[in-house]
Amino acid sequence: MAFVIWSRRTMSHQRVRFVEARTVRTMVIIAVIAMILAALALGIAIGAAMGNTHATEEKAQAERRSYEIDELGKISATLTHLEPRVGQLVTQVNELQDFEAQLKASRRAADRPDIHLVPPLPDNDDESPLDSAGGPYLPPRRSPGSAAASPPRPASRSAPASAAAATDAEGGPALPARLCDAQRATQTGSAPQRLRRTQNALDCLDSTLNKLDNAVLAHYASYMAFPGRQPAPAARFGSPFGNRIDPFNQHLSFHPGMDLVAPTGTPIYASAGGRVIQAGPHGGYGNAIDIQHSTGMVTRYGHTSKIFVKPGDLVMPGQKIGEIGSTGRSTGPHLHFEVIVDGTQVNPKHYLALFKPTPNAAS
User: Fold this and answer.
1) How far is it, in rounded angstroms, from Cα 115 to Cα 107?
2) pTM beyond cutoff 0.85
């Protein structure tokens, strides 16, 4: 089959051209192939363009994810840092609150008499009035006076520091404290914005904790230096503070501390933090340890068999400083414990009552 095509080169010369069908098919096929190739090329171009767009978006998403992961890591690290600080602060505040409550209760009870009754003489010479007693022989006090009955208090020499602190110039309007709003930080905005606000809230909390730490630290330091922790938790109470019958000469005498009875070698712990000012032989106290505390008070530990500290050493509350013995003027192994305020021995019972007894303490 042939097709007739008119061809006009000029209006005066016309020529007839004959084209075979297979030639047309060949041309169509070539055209279709060309279109397919063009479409393919276009598809490749579009695909490449879209691929670049997707790659850009994926890269941006990857960068956002990396940023968010980094921010979450920082937040997690901040929380890890803050959590133990909050726990420690809560513990310290609870201890201070308990201590303050005990101190107030002690002051309310201060008007009650605290006269130690003299124990009766034994029925016969074989009976000892008290087991494991001792200490220096002092004349009896006609009345225990305020030193025995008054509630625990720091030594008066620490008062000037408090007065000086109270006179520092301060002032300004009283405004409510600004809180670190962590809840609002996570309510609105994009993920990066919420992360930034959360980190800012945590930074605010960190700053607040620093201020609270500084405020609590001063009170807690005084608390740690305040005597009253049981120096021999494994011991039981023996001869108390006050007038008594002397275990050696059976005369009425004054006992300036309290005895804690336990076997030789039982650990002795510092009742509060402070500096050792005496460690060694001390008259009727035998081998004794004196610790001066920042409050100005002194605690004394007498009749020790072993001493693990020396003058000038700084000790922490509950630190092992020696072992119970029967050195000096003593009838048997025990710890003679004193609390001294402004040079005068006061009843240690009031101070021991301010602190929770340890589980293994005996009475």
Assistant:
1) 17
2) no
Give domain limits for the chain. Answer: 2-60, 113-154+227-352
Ranges of residues in the chain whose predicted pLDDT is under 70: 1-55, 71, 109-189, 357-363
Contacts for 296 with CB less than 8 Å, ≥ 6 apart: 154, 155, 156, 157, 158, 341, 342
pLDDT at site 129:
41
Is the distance from CB of 272 to CB of 291 less than 8 angstroms? yes
Superfamily for domain range 113-154+227-352: Glucose Permease (Domain IIA) (2.70.70.10)
- What percentage of the chain exceeds 90 in pLDDT? 33
- In degrees to the nearest 10, what's the CA dihedral of 328, 253, 333, 277? -50
Cα–Cα dist 227/257, whole Å = 14
Whole-number pLDDT of residue 267: 98
- The Cα 298–Cα 338 span in angstroms is 8
Q: Closest Cα partner for 323 from 357, 274, 289, 281?
A: 289
